[in-house]
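PROTOCOL LOG
Step 1. Enter all chains and additional molecules of the complex.
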Amino acid sequence: MSLLTSYWPWGSLDHKDTILQLPDGKVAHMVREGDLIRSQVLDSTETGDRSSEEITILSGAEEIFYIPVLPERSVVLRSEHVLRIVPGNQFSTIVQIPLVPTISRKDRKGRYQPLVCMPISSLSKTWFGDPVEGEPAFAISSLLDEAGKIHDFGPWVASCPLVIINSSPEILSFERLILRVPLLSLYSGNNRYYTNQLTVRFRGQDQTSQVQIGTSAPGVDDELTLFSGPANKGDSRLLKKSFSFIKSLAYG
Amino acid sequence: MRWNMFENLKDNATLQQIFSRDTLGHVLESLVYLVIGFFVIRLILFIVRRFTRKRVSRQSSMVVDKLITYTGMTIVLIIVLSELGVNLAALLGAAGVMGLAIGVASQKSLGNMVSGLFLLSEKSFEVGDVVRVGDKTGIVQDVDFLSMKIRTFDNQLVRIPNETLITTIVTNITRYPLRRMDFEFSLSYGDDLQKAEELLIALAQNNTLVLDEPEPFFLLKEYGDNGLGMVFGIWFLKEDYVAVRNSVFREILKNLGDAGLTIPFPQVTLHQSPGSGELSDDPRE
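Step 2. Run joint prediction.
Step 3. Record the structure below.
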């Protein structure tokens, strides 16, 4: 049985019996028997509880990898404390988007194709927008520290440089922002993952905010290379309101 | 003179006259038109369905299908009757008189058809939606001009006339992607309400099927006879209904029980006033 390095868990799965590290201290057990791959998440190493087994069938000679992917849905970012941006000012931060560990193969074009996606608990389900026309998404909260103050990256997150510009005449009281993760690419380098830089220009509550997605690797590190492209090419309908000011629906 | 099939069915017509080559030829032609007409209708339906598959809803597609089918069949019928030599003008004339009689006799059906048109234009439900009509709940299978058919969850087919739908409350359970589930229960007087609220909110946060937003809410409802009534509401995606209901039900019971909180059952406390003597064990007294 092999165990990938504790700090950087990602890599090629050459062995037939492997313990895979997951976020939150959990592990998954993967066994390769010829054309069959059996994988199972151990819910609790103390009790030995296991999730149901997943079986994947592919060619015995095909190479498989343990790699991260960005979440399949958009992610709603909430601030853990009040953030206000005065008109004409901007705020830069780095959002850490949890990565989903996968067992993947490469297709003919060299792109990674996930076979098994491991569950992660750091992404909870949420709803963005009003109950009739909104959309399902994942939720994360952040302290929204200034970009230069963030140093702890780790292998389980992709760092997304985010710039919020208040181009409206009113004070932007930041509540939540939706990050269109399926439109982002993943870049890797120096044992870190990054996404494209996002620049969000707030024009007022009644106007659609403008979102710019960087077309290349963010300038935070010169040694970044493209790891995987966006899951979605992009749709103008996705670039609708990014900000939402939802009041509690129980109290109106 | 135009050939007329009925000319051969006069009194004293011989079998040879009835089944003459001419007659058989026209009948055969009519059958050919019928078959060709059937396939042409099917072909048009196939093409239209391919075109509308991803562009319109299932319900609209179904309505278009029915329109094409009924119109096509009417045209084919007219062609076949015409080929058989039936005088369509006379038929339509007779239909005018008969129409009055049919209209009087089929008021209900006509009412259903008119109601059906209103329902279709209203779009308060569509094929695939889960609706509740009276005590019947099921998935809408078909919305026709006369009735709506739903398939109940125990796999029964229920036909509901459109006139009934127009005059009844119809609840579309799955119209919106998001739903809220309210759990109403009581806690014993004397239990820690703050603790209960914190437990329930934490329960919602830890359940992966419960949405973070809209946020779950906790409401103290009433001072009940047996305990303090409260409502705990959580939001979820409509497709997770059963899983959410079962998991949250279990977790409420477990978490409250683990924390020493109790959901009371109806009970009566007797207070005996002083000087009234001891209660007798004899039920006759």
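Step 4. Note key features.
The helical segments of chain B are 15-18, 21-52, 58-83, 88-105, 107-122, 162-167, 193-206, 241-258.
Chain B touches chain A at residues 176-178, 205, 208-215, 217, 219, 233, 235, 237 (CB under 8 Å).
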